[in-house]
From TrEMBL:
InterPro entries: ARM-like (IPR011989), ARM-type_fold (IPR016024)
Entry keywords, A to Z: Membrane, Transmembrane, Transmembrane helix
Matching PANTHER family: ARM REPEAT SUPERFAMILY PROTEIN (PTHR33115), OS07G0654700 PROTEIN (PTHR33115:SF11)
Name the record gives this protein: BLE2 protein
Transmembrane segments: 52-73, 85-101, 122-143, 149-170, 182-202, 222-243, 264-285, 291-311, 370-395
Presence of keyword Endoplasmic reticulum: no
Length: 998
């Protein structure tokens, strides 16, 4: 694994054009950038207001310290309602506490942060408030309502944010128990109110016994109304709770009643019931003798809910800063008159030097107080404005969530974290020009030591990589940091953090599309770990070689059962449930009828679409870690061939990839759909590796061919009727690439099932349906082409493979190839011609001459029209046809009178291909072979034709320019493969000899 270095270095980057990011388009990318700029501007605005308030607060603190409390400590009034001394002292300590807490960010956020000054109450908090008020109602007769109720409400509100660790403690409750609490807590909360009603009913009966004639009818109607309201609330909440139970019958009934809106209506009904329960609790008192109690309870309830909505002390302290100056502004001038004050008595100081009647000790005190209270008022007003403005931060945040592609609750949490981070940075440094972006935020969190921050950082990075322009910017930043790349590599090792590991793999998959392995050492070894996921089943060992005791084997089996459980993947992106919250989505889409196109419906749809959060889709088979790992390796191979050297040298990597090519029906770690995806991914990667040219390609093909079960697995894929055409195509492509080596052609030929599968795909393709009019798909055409190429490669230089193809039952092999040679499609006719050429070369006795007669004239016509590789293939085929049926070909020459034209075509082609070409390296060889066959059979006329066309001079030129490259049949890159039998110089000598002999 790459070691962490303190030195940052740049990485060579070429932005990837493909992928999801490129598909998003420039227009959508501009919307993302606009949404991010809007949120940043909003943050700067809020931070600017808060910092102005902080500045005024600091000035007020200094003014109170130096001017007021320091200069006028004995003059400031503190009697009756003239409390300037105490007001200044309160503000002094309040501001001192704020300034002191700035050194501790957590304390400052808790008490004085604008972010989170208000919080929205969900129905979960309403449930707790109902329980609280139930206790208040039960305990009210025993306690004083004047002092106890407000204090209890304030204590509940303060306890909400003073003890945030309580939620984390409750989060440790098992998930099933949290679901039970979430399901039944509303019912329990409503049921607890029954005690209050019973208590009040007993008190009312006692009052009726004492005064039956005055109170009976009034209490009866009042209590009946309260009981009816309570009963309705209980029944409604119970029905909603039952509808949330996960039973088939209940789910079906709820769907039929509520349809797709059921989650939306459940939450609406529960919230209304909670509010109704709070009001009902307030009116459960006796309103005859103590009529003011319901009003007092309503005031206390509203006050407590408001206090519970405060996220910290910022709003109360801001209100205090506003109220205190307003209380004193009107009376400052009256309290500190510029004259001798009778209240000063004998302690009055001497007259002022100016000779006036003012007391020198209070000179400038009035304007000083005005300045002081003005600064405090401005500070409080700015804080209130900042808090109110911050409430509307949900608009740019929600806009960024939707435009940025963030989904689910984690997306909301991530943008909220970014908003807090942005605000903190703006408060710490220059608010007008902070260099903050989602890309930097993702990298900061990704490099954090906190698991929670790493999770948000890696998921944000994955989201940003899905579209431009954030994709390009983030790729640059990620690759430019050794620390970040090392952190990503380490995340692949975190088997106990499945979600982080999963998204780290997804991010690396995007990086690999434009990454050089040399700039990220160890990436192949780290990615190789992903291929071990789900492969922890106990390995069977030969009894003669097994040295594991039974106890250790049992431990291994237990470990396998724990690790191989498929719930690991299911929990990879799942959000853990919170206490008193359901597991159902809170943002389920509302089905709005398309039949109504009224203005109200359109506006509602727009509002709902803006407010709703897109939900995450379920994981698919493509999200398996081995699939992602193989996709990473494939991207590295595709981007730069130099990456293949480390892939080739990685220990056991080829073996791990090849292991997935087997569709093992006894493997219980994966479903059938997952197995098919794994097989396709491994075959696709092997196809890419076997297609590499150069020396590294030879090495890779050799290592891949050494796997003992590869050919068997490939034969199973070709013979499996459930495999799709794309999977069979890549399997055929692997066979074609491996068949470049002569020893592999022999090995593949021994697996008869491979040749059978290839011939079936090539010679019996799916025909278009005449009834439906459906045409053959592109994937089926591609499979047919690659299968034909594989057969052609297997036939080169291998007589046994050619005989196996000829002897396959159910095919008229030569006739089928003849039809394909006459096909208008270039690839099919070239593949068929090459295959037939090899068959005639190695298995001519098994070919009927009648099958070749109709082919000879067709081949001659193709030679006169073809060029390049096609010309090489058809000239090679014609030479073997001429060798097999020379008389028939001579008749064709005479009948069409094209012999002179044909000879001229050969000489012209020889002149045109004097320079070696990797696309058709054997064209001079096949031309010379054809010329030799013509001169051998019809020596007199043909030799004269060649002499008239200066064939001797042309042969001399060929002899002077013979290169080693012309002795190869196929080139991959600059490396020649499959050497030809007879050297080109020997063919030149034979042709000259025939020309000189006549």
């Amino acid at each position: 694994m790459a070691q962490t270095s303190g030195v940052e270095h740049s990485v060579h980057i070429i932005p990837a054009d493909g992928g999801a990011g490129a598909g998003a388009g420039a227009g959508e990318g501009e919307l993302v950038a606009t949404a991010e700029r809007r949120l940043n501007c909003f943050v700067r605005y809020v931070a600017l207001i808060e910092r102005l308030g902080n500045a005024l607060g600091t000035l007020a603190f200094t003014w109170a310290t130096v001017v007021l409390l320091g200069g006028y400590p004995t003059v400031l009034r503190s009697d009756n309602d003239k409390n300037d001394f105490w007001f200044a002292t309160i503000i002094f300590f309040l501001e001192a506490f704020r300034m002191f807490s700035r050194n501790n960010r957590a304390d400052y956020k808790l008490f004085f942060g604008t972010r989170g000054a208000f919080r929205l109450l969900g129905w979960n908090w309403l449930v707790l408030l109902i329980v609280y008020f139930n206790g208040v109602v039960l305990c009210f007769p025993l306690l004083s309502p004047v002092l106890f109720l407000p204090l209890l409400g304030i204590l509940v509100a303060i306890g909400q944010f003073l003890f945030p660790g309580a939620r984390r403690l409750l989060a440790r409750i098992p998930l099933w128990l949290r679901r039970v609490i979430s399901l039944w807590s509303p019912v329990i909360a409503i049921s607890l109110l029954l005690g209050a009603y019973v208590h009040q009913y007993s008190l009312s009966k006692q009052q009726v016994n004492e005064n039956p004639y005055q109170t009976y009818f009034q209490l009866r109607h009042y209590k009946v109304a309260i009981c009816i309201a309570y009963g309705v609330l209980l029944v409604v909440v119970l029905l909603v709770t039952v509808s949330r139970m996960r039973f088939a019958g209940i789910i079906k009934l709820a769907d039929s009643v509520l349809g797709s809106k059921q989650e939306f209506w459940r939450r609406v009904v529960l919230n209304l019931c909670m509010i109704g329960a709070i009001v009902t609790a307030a009116f459960s008192f006796d309103i005859i003798d103590i009529w003011y109690i319901p009003l007092l309870m309503i005031v206390v309830e509203v006050s407590t809910i408001v206090l519970a909505s405060f996220g910290n002390f910022q709003v109360p302290s801001a209100v205090l800063r506003v109220v205190l100056p307003l209380v004193r502004f009107g009376s400052i001038s009256h309290d500190y008159l510029c004259k001798e004050d009778d209240d000063m008595g004998s302690h009055a100081p001497a007259p002022a030097p100016s000779g006036g009647g003012c007391n020198p000790s209070i000179i400038n005190l009035t304007p000083s107080l005005y300045i002081f209270y003005g600064m405090v008022l401005g500070q409080g007003a700015l804080y209130l404005v900042a808090c109110v403005v911050e409430i509307f931060s949900f608009i740019p945040r929600r806009f960024l969530i939707r435009r940025g592609g963030f989904k689910g609750q984690w997306g909301v949490d991530s943008i909220n974290l970014y908003y807090s981070y942005d605000l903190d940075k703006c408060l710490e440094r220059n608010v007008l020009a902070p260099n903050i972006s989602l890309c930097k935020f993702a990298i900061v969190y990704l490099n954090s030591d906190s698991t929670k921050k790493q999770l948000h950082g890696i998921r944000i990075a994955h989201t940003l990589l899905q579209r431009e322009p954030t994709r390009t910017r983030l790729l640059v930043k990620l690759k430019a940091s050794t620390k970040t790349m090392t952190r990503l590599m380490r995340m692949l090792h975190q088997e106990n953090q499945a979600t982080i590991r999963f998204f780290a793999a997804k991010v690396i998959d995007e990086l690999a599309k434009s990454l050089l392995v040399i700039n990220c050492p160890g990436i192949v070894q780290n990615v190789s770990l992903l291929l071990d996921w789900g492969n922890n089943q106990h390995k069977r060992v030969n009894p003669l070689l097994d040295d594991t005791d039974e106890e250790q084997e049992q431990k291994n089996d237990l470990s396998v059962n724990a690790i191989g459980n498929r719930t690991e993947r299911g929990d990879a992106v799942g959000d853990s449930g919170n206490l008193l919250e359901t597991q159902e989505s809170s943002t389920q889409q509302i089905d709005i009828s398309n039949k109504k196109n009224s203005w109200i419906t359109k506006q509602w749809r727009q509002v709902y679409e803006f407010w709703s959060i897109p939900q995450e889709g379920p994981l698919t088979e493509q999200d398996l870690l081995p699939v992602i790992g193989m996709s990473i390796i494939e991207s590295l191979v595709t981007y730069d061939q130099n990456n293949c050297s480390e892939i080739s040298s990685a220990a056991n990597l080829i073996r791990k990839i090849t292991r997935f090519t087997r569709f093992c029906r006894t493997d219980t770690n994966y479903t059938d759909a997952e197995k098919k995806v794994l097989v396709h991914s491994s075959l696709k990667l092997l196809y890419k590796l076997t297609s590499i040219d150069g020396e590294i390609g030879i090495t890779l093909r050799h290592k891949i061919s050494q796997h003992p079960f590869l050919l068997r697995n490939l034969s199973e894929v070709l013979g499996d009727i459930t495999s799709n055409c794309e999977t069979k195509k890549v399997a055929s492509g692997i066979i074609r690439n491996l068949a470049i080596d002569a020893s592999m052609r022999l090995a593949i030929g021994r697996v008869q099932k491979i040749i059978t599968g290839l011939m079936h795909a090539f010679l019996t393709p799916d025909e278009p349906s005449s009834s439906t009019g459906a045409s053959v798909s592109h994937s089926e055409e591609a499979l047919r082409k690659v299968a034909g190429q594989a057969l052609a490669m297997l036939a080169i230089g291998n007589g046994s493979n050619c005989l196996a193809m000829l002897r396959q039952t159910g095919y008229s092999f030569i006739k089928e190839l003849t039809k394909l040679i006459d096909d208008d499609r270039y690839t099919y006719r070239c593949v068929a011609a090459s295959l037939l050429r090899s068959v005639l070369m190695h298995a001519r006795p098994d070919v009927k001459e009648t099958d070749l007669k109709q082919l000879s004239y067709m081949v001659l016509g193709r030679i006169l029209r073809a060029d390049g590789e096609e010309l090489e293939i058809f000239i090679g085929l014609s030479s073997h046809i001429y060798e097999a049926i020379p008389e028939e070909l001579a008749k064709d020459f005479e009948y069409s009178q094209i012999k002179v034209t044909f000879v001229k075509r050969l000489v012209d082609a020889l002149n045109a291909n004097m320079e070696p070409n990797a696309d058709c390296p054997g064209i001079m060889r096949v031309i010379l072979e054809q010329a030799i066959e013509l001169m051998k059979y019809d020596s007199s006329n043909t030799v004269n034709y060649f002499r008239d066309l200066h064939m001797i001079e042309v042969l001399s030129m060929v002899e002077e320019t013979i290169l080693e490259a012309e002795n190869y049949t196929i080139f991959m890159g600059d490396v020649g493969l499959m050497e030809a039998g007879e050297p080109l110089s020997s063919l030149v000598a034979r042709a000259k000899q025939l020309l000189d002999a006549h």
